[in-house]
Amino acid sequence: MNESIKVIIDTDPGVDDAIAILMALVWPRIAPNIELVGITTVGGNVALARATRNALALLEYAGRQDLPVAQGASRPLSGRYGYSHKFHGQTGLSRRLPRPTSRAINASAVEYLAHQLQRQPGQCHLIALGPLTNLSQLMAAHPHALSQSASIVVMGGAVEVPGNVTPHAEFNFYSDPVAANEVISSGIPLTLVDLSVCRQVFIGRDEVENLKSASPVGRLVVQILLNWFRKDPNRQLFEFYDPLALAVALRPGLIARRQLEVVVETSDLARLGRSKVVSNEGPVAVANDVDGEAFAVLLYDLFELTRR
User: Fold this and answer.
1) What is the CATH number of the domain that holds 216?
2) What share of the chain is helix, strand, coil (3-state, %, to 5)?
3) Are 164 and 16 in contact (CB under 8 A)?
4) Where is 24: in which H helix or E strand?
5) Is the pTM of this model over 0.90?
6) Per the structure, how many domains does the chain have?
7) Per residue in 110-161, pLDDT tens?
């Protein structure tokens, strides 16, 4: 029998975050040993309260109100989050979900992560899909907790490619560059899924309009994508940023990678949030290629998608 793989997602849902969360929820259908054990929320794409509500609503839609959601940082280590309403909409989700009846647990994200990682050292796989504020605060409050993760996958950064907020910076790292630098340059081994590979996996407007699903969760994903395209007639491609990071955490063979030492710019305002390689040897496994066809097959399988 395969050993159980426990997953914690740190997230700021967010359209692509929502799809990643739903992937994790249905993954046991194809791999019963995968277990999502909890979610921590952070401000970023939307305000913290909305991110938490979205996470709870997604779990409730999937019938998984039993899973704990712990609220984290409402602000970055310095300044305020800029939010991404233009991309994700004011609520963060392109599909309205009922107000959740469940609530976040009393423990903060830092307390929850510290408890889970230290209680089960080497057992929990951590997937960070938003700004890295919660992880940075965890390192400050519990210096050895983060290194107790079985693995860490971070969606963020633009390593030697243009950013998506500025010419230099990707949204998550730009939202809290100080936290990003503290985590990425900590020496703790992690996998970085940056814009260079995220831009290699996408779906077009025409393909989405011809999708259907045999499952309620799959139908929700199709509706989320359809509504996202319908909000702007100029949108032609949806890139799977956070879903790719989730997939890489659970199927590491999807990507090729190179080991680098990376820092994040925190002082030069013109290049704030820039991911800079300082050595070709280091603890950060930066994805540099992805098997896009295998990812697409996985997505169709997980959500029981077919073409009309």
Assistant:
1) 3.90.245.10
2) 40, 25, 35
3) no
4) helix 15-26
5) yes
6) 1
7) 999 999 999 989 999 999 999 999 999 999 999 999 999 999 999 999 999 9
